[in-house]
Amino acid sequence: MLQDYLLNGGFDEMLDPHKGVRGHYQKFHKLFKSISPAEYDAKRQAVDTAFLRQGITFNVYGDAAGAEKIFPFDMIPRIIPAKEWELLERGLAQRITALNLFLHDIYHEQKILKDGVIPEFYVLSARHFRREFVNFEVPKGIYIHICGTDLIRDKDGNYLVLEDNGRCPSGVSYVLENRRAMKRAFSSMFEGISVRPVENYPQELLKTLKYIAPAGVAEPTVVLLTPGAYNSAYFEHTYLARQMGIEIVEGRDLFVRDSRVYMRTTKGLQPVHVIYRRLDDDFLDPTVFRRDSMLGVPGLVHAYRAGNVSLANSIGTGIADDKVMYYFVPRMIKYYLDQEPILPNVPTYLASEEQDMKYILEHLPELVVKAANESGGYGMLMGPKASKEEIAIFREKIIAEPRNYIAQPMIFLSQHPTYCDGKFDGRHVDLRPFILSGERISIIPGGLTRVALRKGSLVVNSSQGGGSKDTWVLYGDE
Amino acid sequence: MLSRVANSLYWMARYIERAENIARIVDVNLQLLLDIRNLDEKRLVAYWLPIVQATGDEQAFFKLHPQATGHAVTEFLVFQMENPNSLVQSICQGRENARMVRDQITLELWEELNRLYLFVRSPQAREVWHHSPSDFFHEIKASSLHIIGIINATLIHNEGWWFIQVGQFLERADKTTRILDVRYQSLPEKGVPERISPDEALEWSAVLRSCSSWDAYKSIHGADIHPRQVAEFLLLSDDFPRSVRFCVNELNRSLRRISGVTEGHFTNNAEKLTGRFLAELQFSTIDEIFEQGLHRYLDEAQTKLNNIGGEMFNAYIFQPFQAADEVHMVQQEEQQQQTTHSRY
User: Fold this and answer.
1) What is the pLDDT of residues A117-165, one digit of tens each?
2) Cross-strand pairs, A436
3) Domain-by-domain residue ranges, chain B?
4) In angstroms, rounded to a whole number, what is the distance separating the alpha carbons of residues A157 and A194?
5) Residue A461 to residue B340, Cβ atoms within 8 A
6) What ipTM, to 2 d.p.?
7) With contacts defined as CB-CB under 8 Å, which chain A residues touch B92?
8) Per the count of CB atoms within 10 A, which of A49, A237, B85, B254 is most buried?
9) Shortest Cα distance, chain A CAs vs residue B86, angstroms
10) Whole-structure pTM over 0.90, yes or no?
């Protein structure tokens, strides 16, 4: 399988620098070798067809015909040994704990600002800071219940945190479906290799959601609030709702009366207690946030403030997503937990710090520049790949609005053997584990491994030729 | 169940039924014209105009076309996207409603409906149409029947399924009255015509075939075609699945399954109106209907069915779910994401 396989000088997940198969991939490699190319091809096609038929798809925006595509799936799994996963788990738990403490703090005493650990200006100027929710008690004091933290590995194989998604991270349905597909295609392999299961994620999620139900509600009704069928993650919304056995609702299905939320059913109004919302803050309630929102529920925020309905994630978590706040997460960990960060950040420069600004402007062609408040790769400059004009435009933007920009060195992501054009070739990957924070913190073993299917590309983005892999966390280290 | 879901299932079923009925009406009329001799332009219009009138979209039609030529009418009823009730639009709407509740329906149903949608939206559909309209219509009819079969055989027969039945039978009853009304101009205003010409016999058999009822009719009345028997069969037969009485009976049953109310009682206006209409159909004779005039009777029947639809909406759906500004809403839906799509 790997005779003509090329290392690219970066870290390879499966092979060491001498092209020896790493310990935790050996069992897989041995079993995989016994599968003939024809057999592999047949399995691959069966899996693709199954995905398309089941509609495991995402929507392509700007396509009038409403085209749906499958998220390409590569059948070579990414494998993580127990020892490594244990480290990741500790690091992620540490991070989410610090982020939740941070959110609680800045929406209450703001000690971290008063102590000068984070300059006040950064928090108060953040677009997603919800001043209206200062001193509001969120249920059980938890802000981020569901977090997707993106991890990458540098040249030496060190895990680094690329960003935290503390609003409505998506992708977990692919984790579950990828595993199902792999179990169908390679059932015998799972007998030989002990892989930790991922199936209980929906139960864990439901448990987390029920945990934050308003006080005094014994049997809370939990619903998933989706923006609607045109959202790119709609498949995931319906999938999770079905797996949890809860209703999937749109804003127009909900109705607020006397500060209580109800859903409109054929049998009349039914009370709702917990809303797993996959809708941004801005759209939740047209009477409070964006007036033009057609997706929200008028009065929802009022019901939330009255404590009659709980939201996951809480309102105001977007600030933890802010790329400038990301810079301060190691400091938060130190401040709140008095610990060193287990998972380091990618080195980051803040344009609004004088020293950093100077460095950024001098090194623009080598750096990746990101807008602080945008997600989805909008407002980003990839220095090494950009034209002179693009760099000039960004220079102006950064000078005009330093608060809104950060810069990072370009990280050469690790690569992983991937089936491309009839052979196995190295492709860059990242990892998005999903962290649930309820009564306790629970992390789905593994997460979504995304792979850039275009050769040399560092973009793991599904709309730009990205795909995914199953992620196996082993019970042992081999 | 969520009102919005019930609403979508109901409309999904209505639109599929609508598309199938348009396919049958146009197909049969095209075939009928092959049998009529001495057709000039004026006589052609006389065959096509009633079809447009029967759909109730006459006004919309004349906004788009100056004259009811065969080409204009078929275009309007089959492909025209400006006509919200055209065959292609109906399939698009049916599919769109299914998409809204994709998680509530089975894979089999979605796949077939999606396949039909992809077919009518493809350039290939026009080619098939030009080559042989009857092949085109066969495709639509077969797919619709396939979908009805899938609905019956793969969906759980729960509340949602009964809403599908309501949509299907309400639409079917309405379409049967409209097809039966196509030839009303050849009838006296009141009473039964004594004798009909051979061309008229052909036309009335076309009416039967438009309701897929030619074989069923013949098995009861033989090959003897008369408007009285045709109307009796399509209105009052209690065991032919496209007759108005049969459909209203099913409608009545479905509404009662949804609310759990027994026969002889009602809890909402939809049940009340349906029960009344059913009783009227059960205790009427075709001669009484002809005495007051078939056309008038059918007109009233359509109003009754409309009112039942409206009252059903009031009872279960409460508020329109159609957003005022659909495009704007779609844009907002698309904006919501923190997905697998970012970055570098």
Assistant:
1) 999 989 988 888 999 899 999 999 999 999 999 999 999 999 999 999 9
2) A146, A442
3) 1-154, 157-318
4) 24
5) yes
6) 0.76
7) none
8) A237
9) 18
10) no
